[in-house]
Amino acid sequence: MNSSQLIPIIKRLEAMREDQSEEVQVRRFEKDGVEKCIVRYDSKSKMFELEDRTAQQVYEFDNIDYVAVEILELIESATSIGE
């Protein structure tokens, strides 16, 4: 059985939430060197903002699980298209 692909994504998102600086935290997620999305976390509003680099859409999430699933779907869709 393969390990969950959500775990490393959630760990990166949790690190964003745990950062003590006042700055907005930013992480980039890519597949095979192609940037799929940019995630920003604002500790003041406690909101994640996901920028889908393919569709040029921006989404906001207040739940870490929802943003993690969205990231996984963006990364996996890149795999499906290339097959």
List keywords for this structure.
83 residues, alpha+beta, Signal recognition particle alu RNA binding heterodimer, srp9/1, 4-stranded antiparallel beta sheet, 2 helices, 4 strands
Oligomer: single chain
How many independent structural domains?
1
Shape estimate: globular
The name of the CATH superfamily reads Protein of unknown function DUF1797
Which class best fits the helix and strand makeup?
alpha+beta
Provide a count of the helices. Answer: 2
Uncertain runs? none
Number of strands: 4
Strand content: 25-35%
Q: Tell me roughly what share of residues is in helical segments.
A: 25-40%
- With strands numbered from the N-terminus, the spatial order across the biggest sheet is 1-2-3-4
**Helix/strand order, N-terminal first:** HEEEEH
Gyration radius, rounded: 13 Å
* CATH-assigned fold name: Signal recognition particle alu RNA binding heterodimer, srp9/1
| Name of the CATH class | Alpha Beta
How would you characterize the overall build of this protein?
With 83 residues, the chain is α+β, with helices and mostly antiparallel strands. The chain has one domain: Signal recognition particle alu RNA binding heterodimer, srp9/1 (2-Layer Sandwich). The chain is built from two helices and four strands, in the order αββββα. The chain has helices spanning 6-18, 64-82; strands at residues 25-31, 34-42, 47-52, 57-61. Strands 1-2-3-4 form a four-stranded antiparallel β-sheet, covered by helices on one side. Helix 1 crosses helix 2 (64-82). It is globular and about 30 Å long. It starts with 5 loop residues before the first helix and ends with a helix. The relative contact order is 0.19. The model has no long low-confidence stretch (mean pLDDT 91).
